[in-house]
Specification:
- By secondary structure, this protein is mainly alpha-helical.
- The protein has one domain: 3 helical TM bundles of succinate and fumarate reductases (Up-down Bundle).
- Helices cover 76% and strands 4% of the residues.
- α2 packs across α9 and α7 packs across α9.
- This is Succinate dehydrogenase cytochrome b subunit.
- It comes from Pontibacter cellulosilyticus.
Length: 228
């Protein structure tokens, strides 16, 4: 196992782990957004609460939550290690090299963007995931079955201006993070080709904008247009 440890603790190895976990987290974003779009149903939150109950009780989903958590932890840890290594190998820094001419802003600020996303994630999990998994939500009956009313918790949260602001800013940061990370992941994994790379770049850009816009629209809708 010595070769395995050396390989995946090297800079290249950590970049590979970053790429794989990043693409895995992208798939989670798609699934999570599809589930959240059920908030737009005009059924008083029944569909969303049934969906949330399924996600919280299905053993396969609960197992995948552990995999997802590990994916986040590996992604964050490797990002920290790689950032420190890059700084150590570049003592002079970008200032004297005109970075704006050599790399996009998102590429040079992945650490900052990642930090904003991490802070939001902690707040978001505390506000929704913890009550949903460990109690504290009001019950609601749907088709003679009692569910936790996560829907009303979401609606009430999206009526708080500072939470909506944090949410939207985090989605902007996530969009920039994904725009660079999506393309970079394919490049790191060696999946580049002069014929397909331009498509991957365009798809990554569109994916980043549409996914983050989809998430951002939800709190904005409830804050400006929805009445409790």
């Amino acid at each position: 196992m010595n070769w395995f440890t050396k390989t995946f603790s090297s800079t290249i190895g950590r970049k590979i782990i970053m790429s794989i976990t990043g693409l895995f987290l992208c798939s989670f974003l798609v699934i999570h957004l599809i589930g959240n779009l059920q908030l737009f149903y005009t059924d008083g939150g029944e569909a969303f609460n049934v969906y949330s109950h399924f996600m919280g009780t299905n053993p396969i989903i609960r197992t995948m939550e552990i995999v997802l958590l590990l994916g986040f932890l590996f992604h964050i840890y490797d990002a920290i290690v790689l950032t420190r290594r890059n700084k150590a190998s570049r003592p002079i820094g970008y200032a004297n090299n005109r970075p704006e001419e050599n790399s996009p802003w998102s590429s040079r600020n992945m650490g900052l963007l990642g930090t904003v996303i991490l802070v939001f994630l902690i707040i978001h999990l505390w506000n929704f995931f913890v009550p949903a998994r460990f109690g504290g939500l009001e019950p609601i009956v749907v088709d003679n079955v009692e569910y936790d009313n996560l829907y009303i918790k979401v609606v009430q949260s999206f009526k708080v201006w500072w939470y909506v602001l944090i949410y939207v800013l985090a989605m902007v940061a996530l969009a920039y993070h994904l725009i660079h990370g999506f393309q970079s992941a394919f490049q790191t994994l060696g999946l580049t080709h002069k014929k397909y790379t331009p498509f991957i770049q365009k798809f990554g850009y569109a994916f980043s904008i549409l996914i983050c816009l989809g998430f951002a629209i939800i709190p904005l809708y409830f804050f400006f247009f929805f009445e409790l």
